Please model this.
Amino acid sequence: MAFQRKDFLLIAGILFLLIGLMGVGLAPIYSVIISITIYAGIKIFIGRRKKMIEKEVGEGICVKCGSKIENQKCPICDRKKS
Model:
């Protein structure tokens, strides 16, 4: 799994959050724990969301009507043709 630009942006944002938490006066260990928890939570949320979208979309989306393509055919557009 290679890092993409969005991963680097997420890590940079978490590091800024870490620095901000330590700047407020929170102990460094608690800042690290909070930052790691937020990072893991975001990665898990994104992973589940991605799987959900792939499940909903399936083979693709019809360009004309926007419905889900099943068995290489659009159920709405192909029904209109017959």
Notes: The chain has a mean pLDDT of 88. The first helix runs from residue 5 to 24.
